[in-house]
């Protein structure tokens, strides 16, 4: 009897003592979040399709033929972005996902989005590309007139400041500052996946390649 | 046939060692001329002397299949023809094929030998086909003249004149329309790295004076038009340069001294990350130089660079080029107008820092001493400098003084003064700061007092480390805040006007890896009570998303003052509170747990709530005024209450409200007392933070109702 009385608290102690908390990085949700932000930040502008690896002439500003799976008109995608902004609760209430609608993140997204049309010609000309750390890197300044090189440097510095803050803030806003490296890694991959044909990126060995 | 000396078939008479030595200097002409003058000439018959040499091999010269012919028809001129199948001069990089010399009239008299209109044709594997006109006169090894023209070099033409007399030799070279990229490829000594692209055209003149094998004086004049260059990555580049340069030098006991003068009158330069365009006024560079042995010993004397409207620079000392070491340079830089220098020169250099988006005015002077390990001394003089952050985060006006830093040893004292400054919308008064900067550290020499919000902030100590290589800048400080006016603060921050004082003793303020931490606490005497702020950290304060975290404790706030301040309707009594885990991201609240409540017991003034306050709470509750004035309660101006408790938990975008448990469900925000009794009961616990803020602005509160 005594044994039984003793064993109950012992067992409960053992049971409670063996609790292990595993926090897994929500890779799928992070990827979805990254894709949303990256598409928004790359803007709608894109160059004409080009099969060969040769350097292509920059696309005219009105040449905005979509090459991605998302063939919807711009208006529909903007509407979705506005809707996402207005009803953040729909995201928050769903499955355990990554929240990208805090005021700070929204501010960074808006800032990056505003910059996208300035960066696009430089992505297309190969002057800049996506590096392995989810940032923009200057690849070949020869493609940029001398006068614009300083401005491009400035744009790249601002963009990277926003991107670094964005990765840190997404991790922090979702309660896991330690996820920053994973978030960054996810973004680094998604920037390349979402990049338009002709844009340059660094592969795993650091070598520049053209999409 | 690989003997190191020329083979001379049929030339047994050539035996004088002195003659041979002199002749080697002018190659084969001498041999033929000797033959011509020493061979007995028939009175009427033509002359034909052939000299065939299979090859000549030496360290500095090699030649194969040499055929020389001296001809003279009856009464005709003496002619010289020469052919060399291959000629190599490795020291000059000359690799000629099919060299043909034609001298239609060789003059031979007592004054020496000469040829007025010779032509030399051949093909160099790098210079391409050549057809050079030559004029030669030779009397002795130290008495000769040579003119040439039509040498094709780097897509241009080069002509020259050389002569020697008893006082040494002189040379003049004129180059016309050289292509500098080709020239750099032909002359590796110019030191242009592989992969650089250089375009444009150059006209140049070079005068040389020497004696024997030694050069004594030189004068070089270069005119460059449409010059452009670029390294493979485009980090160093220029376009459309118009350059005029003069260099004079003379040897003095094995050392070279001279002057250099260059004028840049047009063009654009990019030296990552700085882009500069030459304006209407030319950029000039003047310098003396002194070289003992190699370029590594090159020493500049009073080099002056004048870039109109941008900077004046003076450089003295040894350059230490080519990794030779012994660099010892002093650079004096004057930036008389920061307003124009900032966008052109400073902003690109400050990219990525908090100073990369500011407006700047005033003047500055910089003295920098460099040695092989990098900067060893820096002195910066500020003259009425104004800095204003374009996003409005900070600004300084009337910055004067001097900053001195030394890598080793004791540095001179530094002192900076400012007339005024601002941090966000908070103004800082005139300040003077004395400090010492040496090696890795910068330390405050005495307390720094900053007038602030009608009180003052006193920086007692400040020590910064990480000026040199290492993990980055970090600092520690201790400070006192005394008598800061909360009224001024609230006005500056566009808050409702709060009276009171903010004081603080901050023994440990530190900054490391982008995070500023406050040890100790800030205390404010405000609204009749006290607010204490502890555990304050600020991450990335000037970045795009600053994150502030803190805890706060409120004690004995006078609700009458508080409600008057926020025009909420009068409530009397005291209020305590705790705010834990407050987090502001981009200065917006993103997380906190706040608990505001009446103090335990009945301390303080009578606890009463006015009809207006109840109505406002009612409006907050359901958005519809309950209309107390329409009931008998309108006869009462205010009501007694027992206790107020409001708990707000914010996590992300959702806030949770709570209070004292109400037996009928919901929670009391205000629990009434006596008669007539009014309770304010909240029903809804979850509310979107944005809605809550909007409703607070409109004095609305969802899920709250008034029971009476």
Structural summary, described in words:
The complex is a heterodimer of chains A (211) and B (708). Chain A is mainly alpha-helical and 211 residues long. Chain A has one domain (26-42, 69-210). In chain A, 55% of the residues lie in helices and 6% in strands. Chain A is built from seven helices and four strands, in the order αααααββααββ. Chain A has helices spanning 2-17, 27-42, 74-86, 88-92, 103-125, 146-173, 180-194; strands at 128-130, 136-138, 200-202, 208-210. In chain A, strand 3 (200-202) and strand 4 (208-210) form a beta hairpin. The longest helix of chain A has 28 residues, at 146-173. Chain A starts with a helix and ends with a strand. With 708 residues, chain B is mainly beta. Chain B has a 43-stranded mixed β-sheet that branches. Chain B starts with 16 loop residues before the first helix and ends with a strand. The longest helix of chain B is centred in the middle third of the chain and has 12 residues, at 338-349. At the A-B interface, helix 4, helix 5 and helix 6 of A face strand 12, strand 13 and strand 14 of B.
In a nutshell, what does this entry contain?
The complex is a heterodimer of chains A (211) and B (708). With 211 residues, chain A is mainly alpha-helical. Chain A contains seven helices and four strands; from the N terminus they run H-H-H-H-H-E-E-H-H-E-E.
């Amino acid at each position: 009897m005594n044994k039984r009385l003793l064993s109950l608290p012992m067992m409960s102690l053992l049971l409670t003592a063996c609790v292990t908390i595993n926090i897994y990085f929500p890779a799928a949700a992070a990827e979805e979040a990254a894709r949303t932000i990256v598409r928004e930040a790359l803007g709608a502008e894109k160059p004409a399709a080009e099969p060969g690896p040769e350097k292509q002439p920059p696309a005219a500003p009105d040449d905005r033929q979509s090459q991605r799976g998302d063939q919807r008109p711009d208006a529909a995608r903007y509407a979705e972005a506005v809707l996402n902004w207005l009803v953040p609760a729909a995201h928050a209430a769903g499955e355990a996902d990554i929240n990208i609608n805090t005021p700070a993140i929204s501010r960074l997204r808006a800032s990056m989005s505003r910059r996208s049309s300035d960066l696009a010609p430089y992505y297309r000309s190969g002057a800049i590309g996506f590096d392995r750390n989810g940032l923009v890197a200057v690849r070949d300044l020869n493609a940029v007139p001398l006068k614009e090189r300083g401005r491009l440097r400035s744009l790249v510095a601002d963009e990277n400041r926003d991107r670094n803050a964005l990765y840190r803030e997404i991790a922090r806003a979702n309660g896991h500052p330690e996820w920053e490296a994973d978030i960054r890694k996810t973004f680094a991959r998604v920037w390349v996946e979402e990049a338009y044909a002709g844009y340059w990126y660094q592969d795993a060995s650091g070598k520049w390649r053209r999409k | 046939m690989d003997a190191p000396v020329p083979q001379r078939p049929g030339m047994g008479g050539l035996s004088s060692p002195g003659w041979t030595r002199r002749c080697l200097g002018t190659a084969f002409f001498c041999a033929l001329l000797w033959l011509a003058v020493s061979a007995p000439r028939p009175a009427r018959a033509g002359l034909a002397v052939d000299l065939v040499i299979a090859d000549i091999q030496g360290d500095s010269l090699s030649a194969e299949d040499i055929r020389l012919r001296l001809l003279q028809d009856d009464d005709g001129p003496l002619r010289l023809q020469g052919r060399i199948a291959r000629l190599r001069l490795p020291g000059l990089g000359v690799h000629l094929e099919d060299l043909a010399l034609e001298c239609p009239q060789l003059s031979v008299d007592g004054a020496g030998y000469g040829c007025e209109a010779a032509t030399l044709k051949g093909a160099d594997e790098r210079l391409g086909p050549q057809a050079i006109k030559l004029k030669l006169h030779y009397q002795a090894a130290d008495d000769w003249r040579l003119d040439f023209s039509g040498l094709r070099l780097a897509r241009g033409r080069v002509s020259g004149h050389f002569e020697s007399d008893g006082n040494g030799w002189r040379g003049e070279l004129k180059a016309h329309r050289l292509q500098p990229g080709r020239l750099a490829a032909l002359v590796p000594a110019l030191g242009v790295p592989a992969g650089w692209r250089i375009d444009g055209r150059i006209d140049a003149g070079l005068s040389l004076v020497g004696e024997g094998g030694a050069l004594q004086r030189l004068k070089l004049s270069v005119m460059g038009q449409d010059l452009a260059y670029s390294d493979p990555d485009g980090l160093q580049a220029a376009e459309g340069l118009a350059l005029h340069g003069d260099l004079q030098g003379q040897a003095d006991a094995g050392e070279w001294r001279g002057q250099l003068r260059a004028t840049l009158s047009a063009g654009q330069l990019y030296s990552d990350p700085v882009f500069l365009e030459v304006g209407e006024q030319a950029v000039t560079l003047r310098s003396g130089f002194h070289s003992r042995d190699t370029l590594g010993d090159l020493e500049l004397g009073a080099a002056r660079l004048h870039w109109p409207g941008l900077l004046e620079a003076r450089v003295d000392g040894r350059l230490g080029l080519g990794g030779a070491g012994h660099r010892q340079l002093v650079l004096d830089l004057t930036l008389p107008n920061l307003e124009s220098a900032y966008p052109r020169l400073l902003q690109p250099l400050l990219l990525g820092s908090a100073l990369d988006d500011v407006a700047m005015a005033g003047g500055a002077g910089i003295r920098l001493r460099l040695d092989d390990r990098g900067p060893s001394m820096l002195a910066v003089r500020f003259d009425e400098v104004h800095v204003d952050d374009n996003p409005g985060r900070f600004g300084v006006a009337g910055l004067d003084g001097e900053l001195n830093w030394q890598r080793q040893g004791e540095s001179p004292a530094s002192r900076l003064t400012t007339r005024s400054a601002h941090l966000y919308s908070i103004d800082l008064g005139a300040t003077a700061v004395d400090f010492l900067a040496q090696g890795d550290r910068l330390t405050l020499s005495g307390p720094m007092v900053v007038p602030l919000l009608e009180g003052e902030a006193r920086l007692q100590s400040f020590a910064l480390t990480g000026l040199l290589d290492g993990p980055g800048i970090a600092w520690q400080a201790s400070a006192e805040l005394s008598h800061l006016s909360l009224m001024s603060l609230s006005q500056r921050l566009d808050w409702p006007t709060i009276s009171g004082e903010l004081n603080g003793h901050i023994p440990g303020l530190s900054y490391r890896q982008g995070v500023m931490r406050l040890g100790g606490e800030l205390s404010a005497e405000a609204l009749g009570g006290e607010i204490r702020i502890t555990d304050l950290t600020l991450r990335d304060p000037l970045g795009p998303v600053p994150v502030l975290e803190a805890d706060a404790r409120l004690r004995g706030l006078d609700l009458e003052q508080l409600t008057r301040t926020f025009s909420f309707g009068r409530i009397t009594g005291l209020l305590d509170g705790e705010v834990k885990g407050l987090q502001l991201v981009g200065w917006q609240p993103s997380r906190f747990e706040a608990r505001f409540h009446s103090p335990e017991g009945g301390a303080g003034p009578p606890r009463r709530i006015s009809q207006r306050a109840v109505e406002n709470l009612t409006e907050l509750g359901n958005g519809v005024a309950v209309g107390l004035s329409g009931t008998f309660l309108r006869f009462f101006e205010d009501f007694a209450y027992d206790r107020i408790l409001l708990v707000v938990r914010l996590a992300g975008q959702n806030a949770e409200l709570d209070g004292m448990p109400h037996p009928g469900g919901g929670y009391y925000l205000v629990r009434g007392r006596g008669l007539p009794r009014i309770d304010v009961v909240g029903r809804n616990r979850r509310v979107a933070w944005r809605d809550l803020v909007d409703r607070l602005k409109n004095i609305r509160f969802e899920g709250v109702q008034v029971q009476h």
